[in-house]
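User: Here's a chain of 53 residues. Predict its fold as tokens.
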Amino acid sequence: MVWGFYGRGDILDAADARLKGEFDAGEMETCAHPDRSLRPSVRQAINVLQLDC
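Assistant: Prediction complete.
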């Protein structure tokens, strides 16, 4: 399902509606990149989440 959004260039539409647009679009695009070498590691993602809390 998410890859369908990505393929259409609509990855931001895959965000949970409960977020009501309250998310960093750049972070979402980076974390959803199809090339895993261009995505952050799980450790990096967790660090970002911990900083946002």
